[in-house]
Each structure stands twice: as C-alpha cells, then as structure tokens.
Design a protein that fits this description.
heterodimer, A: alpha/beta, Rossmann fold, 6-stranded mixed sheet, 31% strand, B: 342 residues, mainly alpha, disordered N terminus
Chain lengths: 262, 342
C-alpha cells in the first residue's frame, strides 16, 4: 500500500504555509517529517490523514484519491496519532486502547475475537499490558504516550501517521517509542512520524522529508537530508554532527552565521 | 477532571447488563409506587378491576386520567433528561454540560409561555405541549442557522447560550407585559416543572418524539467514545463530526423539548444523573447513555413521589425538588474535585 501526496499547497487565511510539497510512504517504510516550529508539519500530516483539505494538490492511496474513499474504509487504512494527547474522560487503559477498534466494530455489538486479539497485541507491543487496569489519570507522561500509541496500533491500519510521539519524553522512553514505531514499520506498516530530534530521525527513519520556509528543503536518505547546509537553511543552526558506534548524531552548536533568514 | 477513578472492568463495578436490569426493575417499582401515591385514597386493585370491567367508577377515572399518565410521564421525562445530559456531556467533553446548553429547554419553555400568554391553554389540552415542542423545534433550527452545519463545539456552545438567553428574555418579557397577575402565576408555576394533572394525551403526544430522540442519541454512542480522544482522532476513526453533532442536537431537541413541553423545567436531572452512573459503568461515554436514561427516570419518579408525600401545601413543584436534590450533589462534586487538587 502506498500513500502519495503530490503538489500539496496549504494557506492559512490566504497566507501561504506550504507550496507544492510532495511526500510518499509505502508499506514497511518509516518516513520522518522534520522541520522547524510553524513549518507546517502537523498541517501536512492532517492533510495526509484527510483531516484537512489542501488548497492545491492531491493525496492518493494506491492511486485512488483519498477524497473518494469512504470514512469508515479510510479509517481502517490510516491510523492517526494526534500531537495533542488529551483524553477527556479518565478511562481505563484497556478500554482506551479498545477505541482503536471502533472502525472495525459493528454497532451495538461487543468486540469479536479478532478485535479482542488486536487489542491484546497492541497492549503487548506498546508494553502497556501490565498497567491495563489503571486509568489514564494514574500514568506518567511516557506511559500515557505509549497507551495512545497502542490505541493507534490497535487499528491495525496499513499506514500509521504519528505527530511528535516522542515530544516531552525522557531519552529512554524516546528510544522505546522509536523502536516500537520502527518494528511496526518492519512488520509491514507504512509509518510517517513527525520529529524534532534530528538524531532520532537519522537513526530510525528510512527516509526524511525536511520542510521549512514554505516548501520542501530536502528529502531522501537521512544523511542526504541532514547536511549542515540544509539544517542552516531550515533551522538557522550550525550543527555538530558525527557518528558513534554506527549511530549518527546531530547537536545544535549555534545560530547559523549564514543562510538562515527565519 | 478525574472525579471518578474507577472504570469499566473493575471488580468493584457491577456488570453492565445487571445494572441495566436493576435500574429497569427500579423504574417498574417506582412506576407502581407513583401510581399508588396521591392525595385521594385509591384502592389500586379495585380501580384496575373497574377498568377491566369497563366501569366508569371514580377510582378507575383517577387511575386512568391522573395516576397512570403522571407516572408514565415521570419516567419518560426523566429518561429524556438523563440520556440527553449524558449525550451533551459526551459531545462537549465537559462534565458540567446539561441538556439546556443547546437553548432547547429555554425555547420549549417560551413556547408554552406563549400558549399561556395568548390564552390558548383552554382551547385544547394539547396546546401547552404543542407550544413547547414548537419552541424546541424553533430553537434547533435557529441553532443550526446561527452555528452552521459544520460548527465547532465552541460555536455550538456560544449559539446555545445566546438562544437560551434570548428565549429567557422573551419569557421575562411575556411576564412583564402580562395583562393579569393570574397569567403570571400560571406561567411561573408551570415553568417550575410539574407532572400534576397531565392527561394520557400528553403521553401519546410526547412519547413517540422522545423515543425518536432516545434512539438518535443511543446510536451516537461509539462516536462519542471516539470523541473522548479529541476531534481529529474521532475523525480518523471514521466518524463524521458534523453529522454527529446534527444527530446529537436533533435527538436532544426531540427528547428534552418534549420533556419540557410536558412537564416544564425539571432542573439538574440531566446534569447530575450521568455523574451518578459513571462510578457504576465507567467513563466511556457510550456506556453512560442508557443507564443515565434509566437512572433519570428512576430519580424523577422518586422526586415526584416525594412531592406528593411531603406534608407541604401547596404542593412543591417537581423542578424545585429535583433542584433541591441536585444542587447539594454539585457541592459534593466540587468538594471531591478540591480533595483531588490537594
């Protein structure tokens, strides 16, 4: 399965936010969407999930325009993990994860065997099974993020769009969530993840799309995208970059002396 | 807000089916108790026998024309308020929302006031409920006209508050301009909420409208569950939020508009009952809907029995009693919230 956005342009109150952006993800692939604050990452992800219409361009799922796909059918194909992880009622973890099966459930019927199996798999995959009986109010930030990720995994969609799932997590939980997303991709799901941490993006993603200043600055393999010139242009920073034990790292050193006009 | 920390599946929580059965049994018991309660002594068995024999005895008339309609309306009105309260709290994701937030309660009240004001109440016994239902329909149309089909939750709340204020103002205007003090008294007493002296015709008029509203609200359960995770997530789970809001508001207008049309303003049931149910069924909005309807029916029937049993004359109005029960519960809720904040 392939999700392909082409020529996407988005305006906010007639002010251009993004112009002519292309982005695609295929089954088994993990794509990182990176860029500075306000560059339009979340808006672009919402367009990909059909939560917002682009002002120009189209999004296709296996060559079919997503506008032509029924709501229920699309909800089984694309799982969306919102940046705002608010849960408005203090539900129990397993009840919350079960909400991921709503697209698959028949009205007024309980969950069938396949739904229950999907919920169990998601609880185990996100490593939240052991506190399944606790309510969200009694979990730490990292635990809550993993529960919400489990909810998205429970959809068992072909594509997963995750908006900053590791923001506000400590390094250990960041690693765990990124490993989980990567293993989800390796099992055949196409994953697009919005990230701010360039080192995590370089380490875990197969491809990166860097957007800034109203368009795509670069896209391709992580080391092709995360060059000092691209980062100076997009973020306005000079970076210290290197590799340790095969793991790339990128540290901001200072505001870029040239290139950035943000 | 984490007022209730138990949730579905907890061993300290009753099974859902068992709770629904228990509440249903409580409604049936309260219906019988309500039928047996009144100022005139009534031998129910003899009255039923007279009804079956086709005798127009006084007992049979009291049972058929006064007691049974009052009990049935109590259950219908309470169910409507309870389920609508749970639906509105789910839609707005706010535990302090109540059915009146859409402006329907105020508009239905105004519809009935118009009937009083122009002296139409004597034309037909159904003038009052018809006026109330017309007010509720008008409020719903205005709500959609003002807010639009794809309105956000905030726009809906603002539109509801505006409509509620507007019809409230029209009601006070009617009181202000009322030609005689008797009409004012009638209007004020009616607005306080009561089930006294309603005929079976009221039941036949409002029951089908209410049932349509209940069905509409119950069908929204899964979407309300999705909405608990925010609007974007609910949409990504395949729910059309514009259609959902339309269905919820139409369902609430039918159920609550009919309830106000039949009984006037019965306060706090819609706000309080969902809170009473959540410790028993969990916080998932779809699980709160049906038990809130059943709990609302039980609470309203009990309050209406209290109205008649209390040695207070003139008889207390139902809306006064539900408010006297409901307001302390809100204080209790605030107290629990404060305890959690410490």
């Amino acid at each position: 399965m392939k999700l392909e956005a082409s020529g996407i342009s988005i305006n906010f109150d007639a002010v251009p936010l993004l112009r002519d952006v292309d982005l695609s993800v295929a089954s088994g692939e993990m794509v990182g969407l990176i860029g500075p604050n306000g560059s339009g990452k979340t808006t672009l992800l919402r367009v990909l999930a059909r939560l917002r219409r682009p002002d120009a361009g189209a999004v296709k799922l296996d060559d079919r325009n997503i506008e032509d796909i029924g709501e229920r059918q699309l909800s089984k194909q694309i799982a969306y993990l919102a940046q705002d992880g608010n849960v408005h009622w203090p539900m129990r973890v397993d009840a919350l994860v079960a909400l991921g099966r709503l697209p698959h459930r028949q009205s007024f019927r309980g969950h069938d065997g396949s739904n229950r199996a999907a919920i169990e798999q998601a609880l185990v995959a996100a490593d939240v099974e052991r506190f399944r009986h606790r309510t969200m109010a009694h979990l730490s930030g990292g635990e809550r993020t993993r529960v919400l990720l489990a909810r998205a995994l429970a959809v068992q969609a072909s594509l997963l769009l995750a908006d900053e799932p590791v923001a506000a997590l400590d390094p250990l939980h960041q690693l765990k969530v990124m490993e989980l997303l990567q293993s989800t991709a390796r099992k055949g799901t196409g994953v697009i993840v919005v990230l701010h941490d360039l080192s995590l993006a370089a380490r875990f993603c197969d491809r990166l799309v860097l957007i800034a200043r109203g368009g795509t600055v670069a896209q391709g393999g992580p080391l092709e995208v995360l060059t000092p010139a691209h980062l100076a242009l997009a973020y306005g920073i000079d970076v210290i970059c290197g590799e340790n034990a095969g793991i790339p790292y990128f540290l901001p050193r200072a505001a870029a002396s040239t290139g950035n006009l943000l | 807000m984490t007022v209730f920390t138990l949730d579905e599946g907890s061993p300290r929580m009753p099974r859902y089916g068992m709770l629904v059965a228990t509440l249903s049994a409580a409604i049936i018991a309260a219906l019988f108790a309500s039928t047996a309660t009144g100022y005139a002594p009534l031998r129910i068995a003899a009255a039923v026998q007279d009804l079956l024999d086709g005798k127009d005895s006084l007992s049979a008339l009291v049972l058929l024309q006064l007691r049974i309609p009052r009990a049935l309306l109590g259950a219908l009105v309470g169910f409507s308020l309870g389920i609508s309260g749970a639906a509105m709290q789910g839609m707005l994701r706010n535990p302090l929302a109540d059915p009146g937030i859409t402006g329907v309660t105020s508009a239905a009240g105004f519809g009935a006031v118009v009937v009083f004001y122009f002296g139409l109440a004597g034309v037909t016994p159904l003038a009052l409920p018809l006026g109330g239902v017309a007010g509720a329909i008008l409020a719903t149309l205005v709500l959609y006209g003002v807010a639009g089909a794809g309105a956000s939750t905030m726009t809906l709340i603002l539109a509801g508050v505006a409509i509620s204020s507007f019809f409230g103002a029209l009601t006070t205007l009617a009181l202000n301009l009322s030609p005689n003090p008797y009409a004012v008294t009638e209007i004020v007493f009616w607005l306080l909420g009561s089930l006294a002296d309603r005929s079976l015709q009221y039941v036949w008029l409002v029951a089908p409208l209410m049932a349509l509203g209940w069905l509409s609200l119950l069908m929204c359960g899964p979407a309300l569950d999705g909405l608990a995770l925010g609007e974007d997530t609910a949409r990504s789970l395949g729910f059309n939020l514009g259609r959902l809001r339309l269905q919820l508001i139409a369902g609430t207008a039918l159920a609550v508009g009919s309830a106000v049309a039949a009984a006037g303003s019965v306060a706090f049931v819609g706000l309080v009952v969902p809170h009473l149910m959540r410790p028993l069924v969990g916080n998932r909005p779809s699980r709160v809907l049906l038990p809130s309807g059943l709990g609302g029916a039980t609470l309203t029937l009990i309050a209406d029995i209290i109205v008649r049993v209390l040695p207070v004359r003139p008889e207390l109005k139902l809306g006064v009693v539900t408010a006297l029960i409901g307001a302390p519960f809100l204080f209790h809720l605030i107290w629990r919230l404060r305890s959690e904040d410490r």
